[in-house]
Amino acid sequence: MELLRKGKVKDVYDDGETLIFKFSDRISVFDKIIPSAIPHKGESLCRTSSYWYNVASSIGVDTDLVGLISDSEMRVKKYRQLDHGYSFLSNFMVPLEFITRYYLAGSLFDRIKSGEIDYHSLGFKNMPVYGDRLPDPFFEVSTKFEKFDRYLNISEALEISGLKLSELYEIREIIFKIDRRINSSVESRGLVHADGKKEFALGTGRNPVIIDTFGTLDEDRFWDKNDYDNGQINELSKEMVRQYYRESGYHKKLMDAREKHEKEPDIEPLPENMVKTVSDLYIHMYEKITGLKW
């Protein structure tokens, strides 16, 4: 079995016919791996993603999941990795990430504040505030294999991926189909699904196949519904870790260094109490997201 790549969250092995994902307890923010292990994080991600894979299959979506090997390992189908897609190929990973947003949060909020995105284009009549529900789902695409993710317009996305416009729209409709199930399922268990990202391959006959992991705390943003209904945003995702580094001043130092093309500052470990809080969150959220016992 050959180690193909050691990612921020999981290690990917090639055993010939398939790939094996080994989920670690590593945690990353802002494309930086934090030097603190989060107990049970890998298991939570693996089991949560497996749950959503099964849901996706049940509603007619093709997935790359072959099966679980253990609580922190899964076997998946193998697709070629290409920096750019090709309009005549099949069986390759689409070199894009697909983001769907239902509430105003994260980088979308930042881009509205900076004026990069006009809030009128999202359907708002007046300047929105953080946490507002979007009048319509906001779908966007970013790069996957570049050093830092960047958002793309439709023309760039098609050029990089080799997708036809009809294939991009087909993937978008599959994502909406999956998210309708995620949104309604977690809402019944007291959560708001604010946004999430997904990845795809084009399988035999260029049929879209959802790959990698989705619906977990690392790819998606969840809020406590009761708090939200009472006017408060209670982040139940990796966002709390991002907020910690924003409040510590690290995020600003990092962004300044990147903007000036200077050496990036090392990210400091999380304090022990924060490690426990985040670990407990991953366990708790597995139960809240799936409705299953840990």
What can you tell me about this protein's structure?
This protein is of the alpha+beta class. It has 2 domains: about 1-75 and about 240-285, Phosphorylase Kinase, domain 1 (2-Layer Sandwich), CATH 3.30.200.20; about 80-235, D-amino Acid Aminotransferase, Chain A, domain 1. It has helices at about 40-60, 105-115, 155-160, 165-185, 225-230, 240-245, 250-260, 270-290; strands at about 1-5, 10-15, 20-25, 25-30, 30-35, 65-70, 75, 80, 90-95, 95-105, 135-145, 150, 190-200, 210, 220-225. Strand 11 (about 135-145) and strand 12 form a beta hairpin. The longest helix is centred in the middle third of the chain and has 23 residues, at about 165-185. The protein starts with a strand and ends with a helix. The relative contact order is 0.16. The model has no long low-confidence stretch (mean pLDDT about 95).
Features:
5-stranded antiparallel β-sheet, D-amino Acid Aminotransferase, Chain A, domain 1, 294 residues, Phosphorylase Kinase, domain 1, alpha+beta, 8-stranded mixed β-sheet, 27% strand
